[in-house]
Structure formats: structure tokens, C-alpha cells
Amino acid sequence: xxxxxxxxxxxxxxxxxTVVLKGISFxxxxxxxxxxxxxxGSGKSTLMHIIGALDSPTSGSYFLDGKDVxxxxxxxxxxxxxxxxxxxxxxxNLLPRATVVRNVALPLIYSETPKQEREKLAxxxxxSAGFDESRYENLSNQLSGGQMQRVAIARALVNNPKLVLADxxxxxxxxxxxxxxxxxxxxxxxxxxxxxxxxxEPDVAKHAKRVIYIRDGNIIRDEKK
Amino acid sequence: MLISxxxxxxxxxxxxxKARTGLTxxxxxxxxxxxxxxxAIGQGAQASVASNIQSIGSNLILVSPGFQRGIGQQVxxxxxxxxxxxxxxxxxxASKVDGVSAVSPELSRRYQLIVGGKNTNTQVVGVTDKYLQxxxxxxxxxxxxxxxxxxxxxxxxxxxxTTKTDLFGDSDPIGQSVRINRIEFKVVGVTxxxxxxxxxxxxxQVFVPLSAATRFLAGSDNLSNISIQAAxxxxxxxxxxxxxxxxxxxxxIIDPADADFNVLNQSDIVAxxxxxxxxxxILLASIAGISLLVGGIGIMNMMxxxxxxxxxEIGLRKAIGGTSRDITLQFLAEAVMLTFLGGIFGILLGWxxxxxxxxxxxxxxxxxxxxxxxxxxxxxxxxxxxxxYPARRxxxxxxxxxxxxx
Lengths: 225, 406
Description:
Largest interface: A-B, 27 and 24 residues
Helix content of chain A: 25-40%
Number of helices of chain A: 7
Number of domains of chain B: 2
Radius of gyration of chain A: 17 Å
Helix content of chain B: 55-70%
Largest sheet of chain B: 6 strands, mixed, barrel
Number of strands of chain B: 10
Distance between the termini of chain B: 28 Å
Strand order of the largest sheet of chain B: 2-3-8-5-7-6
Largest sheet of chain A: 6 strands, mixed
Oligomer: heterodimer
Structural class of chain A: alpha/beta
Shape of chain A: globular
Shape of chain B: elongated
Strand order of the largest sheet of chain A: 6-7-8-3-9-10
Order of helices and strands of chain A: EEEHEEHEHHHEHEHEE
Strand content of chain B: 15-25%
């Protein structure tokens, strides 16, 4: 459950202030599949960073599952990310020269999951992400883009977070592979996970059940299907 | 983050680029091995000098006759004047000085020794039965000068191993006669080889009873020196002071500056020699230390490169829940692992170098446990010192910036 109240973000470069978010309020219930859409420079990435507990708002509050995340320290934010949020990035960000299973199990290092459970959890996550079982021991740099993104999705799922945040997950993929990845998100949503997808492409946004349009730091439209 | 995970991550990271890791480690290997080898050479020199000095006797105090005074002195007693020490002085020291375990008066002169067709010129030392104890001499065969020999003025001789070989070759000399200064002496024993001392060859000399030396050879009872063995190392300087006082009294000298004898303390000689070799060790080790410092800078350079190269990875690790502490630990562990490996290989190489120096250059070396522990500590310390800055830099990266880094 995400609740944002009057979120403002101002970057102060000393000489002049840049207001990126101008007081955004919305809420996302558990189990929703939301796309945040807007052109580049609209503030959607900044919003994603705040929702993902990577950054704190200048003012306003952000509640994640009833907990106020907006005023936490760096270490507390790391804790929130570890337990509650799974990230999928446009550039995959896999560890090169490491196997698929090791890449997926990486977040388990920081949650100090017992070693014997890690492989089981990683394989379960890979299965949820629809990754081909015969390639579990491949090195990540030997995979195709679509396969890489599935590994990244599995990595986002391995700690069993309620919220999966995807930042332009199809940006580096061709249309066909992109579609498969988006269908994977739809499937995960059906299984009960909250998905927030950031994109500038209407074709991608239409896979979501709800689209929040952002322009110049303000929500201009909030559509539910 | 579990310790085992930290090791696993470190292992993956340092094996990712083996050539670079190897070259960086090489810098530390060279640094550590040269420190180990240089300390080994220095300590070897120190030990061999000290053992040479110790081989002339333990807790030894040497009294020798006075030397010539400076120019302008009214009465010159002559260089190496040998008339100031008497047997009575030795007796006085033995009875009046506390903390003395033995006193050995000695009278040495060089004479021609003749056995059949062979002859040699060597040091003939008139000694008492105490000499054996005071000067750390051990017998190879036969017996040494006894008190009976002394009281009977027996014409017996104990040969040093070099002299024995010169005069008798490989045959057994016991019971044979040696003519010293045309007087016949009977061989009763041969001493064991002691090796060079840095002062004189202790193996090329012969011993006769002091009474026989004064009566038949020297014709006077002026001693060439008195060796005194102190009971233990702690009382040496005390004994030295007392000996000086007793001799001044015996010789009726009031001003110590006019003393017609010198008292030398063996521990002073050892200390002087050790301080020279100690400086030598420090000098060698600090030159080697510079290469270790250069190796450390190599580590820092590699870690900074690594942090830049892996910026996105750092961003990812932070995004999936790694704290600043986790990131610091990871990069610090990599640096320490590199220097630690370098330390281990460096110790092995240093040991080989020291071994090689001993084997091929014939210089004594000594590898001490303390230098190995020092090397281990220093190499791990270098990892921490030179790894800390790159690790902090990595941990302070903002995850957002790091993930965007191209």
C-alpha cells in the first residue's frame, strides 16, 4: 500500500533551484498494476526513486505499508529496499561473469538468508519470471537481452517483495521480447504482487490496469481501466 | 552481510581480472619479500657478530696493561706496556671483588715451536686451570692444564687445533714433545676448534702452565692480561667498577685517569657491535619498506580503478539493500585480501631470497618469527590504509547516480 501526500522534490544547485515534483498526491493499493507515464524531464524518474526508497522527498510524506519512509536515514532506506521493494532496471544491471543463479541470489546476501535456502529461492524466482531452466548455470553475459531482463525480474522477486518497481524495463528490448517481459509482469500481478512500471511509451503503459500521467512535476491524469 | 558471503564476494571480485590482480599483488610481494630478506640479512649479521664475541667467553671482563699516554705526558709508560699486571693483581681481584666466578691470569708471547722437522711460530699462552671456564674453551682430546701442573712448574702443553695440524698433521700428538723456545714440553691435550672471533684466530695457539711460562719462557711474571668471568650478565658493570677500584688500589694510583691498565667489558663490545648491525638492519629494512609503500600505492590505484569500473554494480548493490557499511566492507576486504596474499607470497619469496643469499653469497641470515608476523601485520595494515579511501568512495556513492553511471 503506497500513499503519497503532497510530495515535493527540489534540487538546489546553489545558484538556482529546480523544482522537479510540485506536490504530488496519490495512492496505490496492494495488488495494483500501475504505469507512471510521462515524457522525459517530467519528473517520473524522480518519483520512482522516491517510491523505491532510493531518495527522500524535499517535503511531503510517503507511506509504504503505513510506515513513513520520507524521513528515514540512508541505512533505514536500505533496509526498506531490502525487505519491501524489488527493482527492475532498463539496463538489467546484472553482474557479468557470474552465473544466472548467483545473480538472482545476490539480494539474499544482504538479507542474510541461510545459504542452503538461497538456491531454492533463486530457482523459484527464476521460474516465476519464466526463465528457461536449462540456462540456470549460464554466465549472465552469455544471455540475450530478453533472458537478461527475466533474470533481473527474478532477482527483483527473490526476496519476495510486495512491490516490484520497473524503470523502463523494455527500453533496451525489441518489441516482441518487450511484450513477453510485459506479459511476465501481468502474470506476476495476477499472482498478487503490486507492480509499478515507469515508462514514456503508451504501448507499454497500456499493459497496466491503471496509468498515472505526469507532466512538469504534476499529475495530469489518473486513469483506471 | 555474512562473513562467508564477504569472502565469496571478495573471491569473485579478485579473480575477475586475474592479470591485474596478479600484477598488483606482485608489488606487495616484492615489498614484503625484500623487507623479510633484508631483516634476515641484518639479523644474521647481528647474530654472527654476537656469537663471535660470545665465543671468547661468556660474561667476560678483560683487563689489559696500560697503553701509552698522550703526547706532553711527563712519563710515558710505553705502548702496550706489559709490566703493570702481576699475578698478585689476579689474586687480589679473585679475593676482593664480589660477583666473580673465575679469574684467569694470562701471559702470551709468540715463540717458535719445533716438532721433528716441522716448525711454526705461534702464540704461547701461559694459563691457569681457570682458563678453560673463563674463555669457553673445550677439550678435544687429553686434559687441560691442572693445578698440579701449575704447582710443579710442569713443562706440559695443550695445543690449539690449527697448531696441532701444523705440527703433527693427522697423527695423535698426546705424549709427544714440542720444543718451545728450545725447551721441551710434553703434549697433554688438544682443544676443540672455536673458529675466528674477529680478534684473533683462537685455534692457532698453545697453552702452557702459567708458572712454566713465567719461569722457563718469559722470565718475568708480567701478565699480558687478566680475564675475569662475572657470575651473571647483570653484575658485569658492577664487577668492572670493582676491578678498576681494586687495581687502582693495588697499583697505588689515585687518579683513575692515570690508570696503567684498561678494563674492557664484553657486553660493551657486544652492544657496540649490535648497535652497528642494528643500524645496518634498519637501513636495509627502510629501503625495502619504500618498495612496500610503492606496492601499497599500487593497491590503492587498482582499488580506485575498480570502484570506477564497478560504479553501476555498487548502485545495484545499494538498490537491493546493501548498506554503506556493506559496500565499505566489501571493497576493504578486497584490498586486504590482495595485500594479505601478497604478504604470504612475499614471506615465501623473502625466505627463498634469504636462503639464496646464505647459499650463494655465504652471508649468514636469520629469519625471525617476529619479522614474519611484522610482514603479515604490515601487509594487512597496508590493505586497510590504502583500501580505505577507495572503499569509502564506493560506499558514499548515491545509488541513483551510481545506477545512471555510464
